[in-house]
Specification:
alpha/beta, 19 helices, globular, eleven-stranded mixed β-sheet
């Protein structure tokens, strides 16, 4: 995985920075070199801004030097993200940088302002390495729907990393950065985290401001962190979370500073599991779940029980309706949000010879949107149309309330958190589900009920199946991110000696080859095989 600096988690890099063992510039140069070398084979990055990143690294080193001059207390007060590289999913506004949302319709668009989370990252001194690839407008479960080509999974370059935040997940899994930002509308952080073997968290709806984020489905979208372990995920969440007056859905809920204090010692972390009541929802062991995935989850449950937690089977009876409900609500909101791309105000503009505004509008959207986005716009527009609004959209919102009530009932009965699979399968091959949208949608069956209920969830690695990562999902009541990350840290502690913990992404060495095939070439080869 390249320079030893790229193999360290963020908290270890932060300690090295403060001890003067290394500098932000050294860390960022190592990250840039690895990301640039791998990107032909992985296609994880849409832009890598070397000049900006090095300037921000130098500014971080100067900030650290100034703090040292003020004494040890000033150094200790610095945020642990200071001087460390972060990947931004390419739907986060970065002033002066591109923001395509993975779509041709925004190709060439330059953001005139920073998103709220970009401002927060700048405040703590993080270094933004660049913008990562994604499914177009965050619509996808495989990262094959990007207008700029698919992303490869570093564990197997012929397989998907999951979507829609597959670029950020891959960048973290491949060691390019210790931290990544994704968005989760129906599982788009947790599912790629599971498929690439990293930690990914979807916070409570409203925990992180969506100001400056390109919208998909406004009542579902939420920004969250990727990292290699729970301590780093907690630090990144601490940096970006909090109330923002520019986002009316941003909640006035305090962000616990304890996110920066997850146990560093394994014995202390494991002790947090003792006496916890965890629920295992029977409905999450869906038809079609791979045996290796189920075995990995069952083994994780046994490890939690051995550490002193109680795990009991629970029921979330309306889970089976989650997929259908989501694919009414999300496309309906998407059809409204994407109406703004009209070829007039910004982004792509196609002018028809002798055409009027309507002809230009249709030509722009026809050329700018990809097939999955068009499919969801049509589904959403249909669900909102006269004669179908009550039958579909209103009914879906009623079922959404029942899904939320299921969670409330379980947590109200004294369950501290739920444990479940993140994805019913490991990473699948390119093209395996492109021709069958329903099969693709089923990839998110275990994650999207959490979005429908607005709750937090985190995926942590829990082993390998046929050499590919399996993710364990922890789900909690609203605003329980700290508790979930503590549970995840406890699980990391009790499995610290597991053999799979030392296994690195199997095909990163292939990504180092100068003539490595691109993900697009790999997908084409698989299609022709």
């Amino acid at each position: 995985m390249g320079d030893p600096l790229t193999r360290l988690p963020g908290h270890a890099l932060a300690s090295a920075l403060r001890a003067g063992v290394t500098s932000s510039r050294e860390i960022v140069e190592a990250s840039l070199a690895l990301a640039e070398r791998h990107n032909r084979a992985l296609n994880a990055w849409l832009t890598i801004d070397r000049d900006r990143a090095l300037a921000e690294a130098d500014a971080a080193d100067a900030r650290l030097a100034a703090a040292r001059g003020e004494g040890s207390d000033a150094v200790a007060a610095l945020h642990p993200l200071l001087g460390l590289p972060v990947a931004l999913k390419d739907l986060v506004s970065l002033a002066g940088g591109q923001c395509t949302a993975g779509s041709r319709i925004l190709e060439g668009y330059v953001a005139p302002y920073d998103a709220h989370i970009t401002e927060r990252l700048r405040e703590v001194g993080a270094v933004i390495l660049g913008k990562t690839n994604m499914d177009e407008f965050a619509m996808g479960s495989s990262n094959e729907w990007s207008a700029f080509g698919p992303v490869s999974n570093p564990w197997d370059l012929d397989r998907v990393p999951g979507g829609s935040s597959g670029g950020s997940a891959t960048a973290v899994a491949a060691g390019h950065v210790p931290f990544g930002i994704g968005t989760d509308t129906g599982g788009s952080i947790r599912q790629p985290a599971a498929l690439t073997g990293v930690v990914g968290m979807k916070p409570t709806y409203g925990r992180v401001s969506r100001y400056g984020i390109v919208a998909f489905a406004s009542s579902l979208d939420q920004i969250g962190p990727f990292a290699r372990d729970t301590r780093d995920a907690a630090a990144l969440l601490h940096a970006v979370a909090g109330r923002d007056e520019r986002d009316s859905t941003s909640a006035p809920v305090s962000v616990p500073d304890e996110l920066l204090q997850l146990a560093s010692r394994d014995d202390e972390a494991a002790a947090y599991l003792q006496g916890k009541r965890l629920g295992l929802p029977r409905e999450y062991f869906v038809a079609g779940m791979e045996p290796g995935v189920e075995a990995g989850i069952r083994e994780a449950v046994r490890a939690l029980e051995a550490a002193g937690a109680t795990v009991e089977e629970v029921s979330l009876p309306h889970t089976d309706y989650g997929l259908a409900t989501y694919y009414i609500v999300a496309p309906a909101e998407a059809s409204a949000n994407l109406a703004r791309y009209d070829g007039v105000r910004y982004g792509l503009s196609v002018r028809e010879a002798g055409g009027d505004f309507i002809a230009d509008y249709l030509a722009t959207r026809g050329a700018g949107f990809g097939p999955e986005v068009k499919r969801r716009i049509m589904l959403g527009t249909y669900a909102l149309s006269a004669g179908y609004y009550d039958a579909f959209y209103v009914k879906a919102q009623k079922v959404r309330t029942l899904i939320k009530r299921d969670f409330d009932n379980v947590f109200g009965a004294g369950i501290d958190a739920l444990v479940a699979p993140t994805s019913p399968t490991v990473a699948f091959q390119f093209g395996a589900r492109i021709a069958d949208p329903v099969s693709m949608y089923l990839s998110d069956a275990c994650t999207l009920p959490v979005n429908m209920a607005g709750l937090p969830g985190v995926s942590v690695p829990c082993g390998l199946s046929d050499g590919l990562p399996v993710g364990l999902q922890l789900i909690g009541p609203a605003w329980s991110e700290l508790e979930l990350l503590r549970l995840g840290r406890g699980y990391e502690a009790v499995t610290a000696g597991a053999p799979w913990r030392g296994v690195e992404p199997a095909q990163l060495r292939l990504a180092d080859e100068r003539d490595a095939a691109t993900p697009m070439e790999r997908r084409a080869a698989l299609a022709g095989a």
